[in-house]
């Protein structure tokens, strides 16, 4: 087989790992021989890239986006810029000039994946994107190839290591949210501006990518309701733990007949659930497949080397000539229908509700009446130790049976208006029995 020449766009954290892997002539060469050649690295920070490579191998460094595109030797463009502006330009230019593309850019695929896949098919090219979801966990390949004969009923899990680390540290070390997030930033697990992670948008990007593969529909980011972990309180983690639950930020995709349920939010899982015990920066993706049953994939979901592993695997598949054939044949990469998504208000789940109630007779009866009027059944009630000035307010935790999201929201709005409830302190969490 002829040598496959690569141009790498973006040599940041992951890009440097990919460059070093391709230039080192290590494990990859042992597996497939000398079939891959990294010829160009495109980045604005040329001096920084030179220092990072430390003479790892012969490669052309440039800040000119067009130089590799004008080189007929370049067969594959690896896009690791991130974002959706320059990255989109690079990917579209590569495809229209006859190059295959490998990317780890979940934001780009969530926003423009449908048109980019269509463009790739029009030009007889392919897009590899294993690195876009769950770092070193080969979840894309598992859904695309390993489960090709299965109807996927659900795919969900922890796909953001920053949030998982914060929630784990809060409970294990009795930390408030702000301190746990600061520690994550100190250790390099969270960005200086962590909002993309902690508000759930990163997980929503990944869910959009997974849902297309799993369910064969085009999912738009606006169709995914998204809540993060920034309002999670340590007291609720403790109360939930006492009830036998662990809190995780979940990305959830479920079939509901001919429709899909898609959402990202913190959720309580029974501590026996296979995903509940995944802590720290690790990710876990749970797939319910028609023939294979339940499959749980776990591993490091982010960072230089895990994501490098995924990107290099895609490069190798393209270089070996196998990836383009699969991409051309599989329906998920062609014209797929738009997803018919269940409105969030129609979703049904169980709820954990914590209220600060006045310590006086009849309060719980008033709350129970409102819940009943909204067709919400109480599964259990547990009163905690009194809190607040003079300990006049008592935290009370309710667990409900399954209820409709819209009905629960109406009930909560009414409850918070009661003069015996400190409404600004009310908190709720969804409970998942997937």
What attributes does this structure have?
six-stranded parallel β-sheet; alpha/beta; ten-stranded mixed β-sheet; 434 residues; Alpha-Beta Plaits; Rossmann fold; 16 helices; 25% strand
How would you describe the overall organization of this protein?
37% of the residues lie in helices and 25% in strands. By secondary structure, it is α/β, with parallel strands linked by helices. It has 3 domains: 4-133 and 307-333, NAD(P)-binding Rossmann-like Domain (Rossmann fold); 139-302, Dihydrodipicolinate Reductase, domain 2; 347-431, Alpha-Beta Plaits, CATH 3.30.70.260. Strands 7, 8, 9, 10, 11, 12, 13, 14, 15 and 16 form a 10-stranded mixed β-sheet that branches. Helix 1 packs across helix 13, helix 6 (106-122) runs parallel beside helix 11 and helix 15 runs antiparallel to helix 16 (405-416). It is elongated and about 80 Å long. The chain starts with a strand and ends with a strand. The mean pLDDT is 94.
């Amino acid at each position: 087989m002829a040598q496959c020449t690569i141009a790498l766009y973006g040599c940041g954290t992951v890009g440097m790992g990919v460059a070093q892997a391709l230039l080192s002539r290590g494990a990859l060469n042992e597996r497939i021989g000398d079939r891959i050649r990294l010829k160009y690295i495109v980045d604005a920070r040329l001096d920084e890239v030179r220092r990072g490579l430390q003479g790892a191998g012969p490669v052309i460094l440039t800040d000119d986006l067009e130089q590799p595109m004008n080189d007929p030797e370049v067969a594959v463009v690896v896009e690791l810029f991130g974002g959706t502006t320059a990255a989109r330009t690079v990917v579209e230019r590569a495809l229209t000039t006859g190059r295959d593309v490998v990317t780890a850019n979940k934001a780009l695929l969530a926003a423009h994946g449908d048109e980019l896949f269509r463009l790739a098919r029009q030009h007889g090219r392919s897009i590899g994107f294993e690195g876009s979801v769950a770092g070193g966990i080969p979840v894309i390949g598992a859904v695309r190839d390993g489960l090709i004969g299965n109807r996927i009923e659900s795919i969900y899990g922890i796909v953001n290591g920053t949030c998982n680390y914060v929630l784990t540290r809060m409970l294990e070390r009795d930390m408030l949210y702000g301190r746990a997030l600061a520690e994550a930033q100190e250790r390099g697990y969270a960005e200086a501006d962590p909002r993309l992670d902690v508000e759930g948008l990163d997980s929503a990007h990944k869910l959009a990518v997974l849902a297309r593969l799993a369910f064969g529909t085009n999912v738009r980011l606006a169709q995914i309701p998204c809540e993060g972990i920034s309002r999670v309180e340590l007291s609720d983690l403790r109360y939930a733990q006492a009830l036998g639950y662990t809190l995780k930020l979940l990305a959830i995709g479920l079939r509901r007949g001919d429709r899909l349920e898609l959402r990202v939010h913190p959720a309580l899982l029974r501590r026996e659930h296979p995903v509940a015990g995944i802590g720290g920066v690790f990710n876990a993706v749970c797939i319910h497949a028609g023939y294979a049953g339940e499959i749980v994939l776990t591993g490091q979901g982010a960072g230089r080397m895990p994501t490098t592993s995924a990107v290099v695997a895609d490069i190798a598949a393209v270089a070996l000539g196998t990836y383009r054939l699969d991409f051309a044949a599989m329906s998920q990469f062609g014209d797929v229908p738009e997803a018919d998504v269940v409105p969030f208000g129609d979703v049904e789940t169980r709820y954990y509700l914590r209220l600060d109630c006045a310590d006086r007779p009849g309060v719980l009866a008033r709350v129970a009446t409102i819940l009943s009027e909204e067709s919400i059944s109480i599964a259990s009630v547990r009163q905690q130790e009194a809190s607040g000035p003079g300990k006049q307010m008592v935290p009370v935790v309710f667990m409900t049976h399954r209820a409709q999201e819209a009905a629960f929201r109406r009930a909560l709005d009414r409850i918070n208006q009661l003069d015996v409830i400190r409404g600004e302190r009310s908190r709720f969490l969804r409970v998942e029995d997937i």
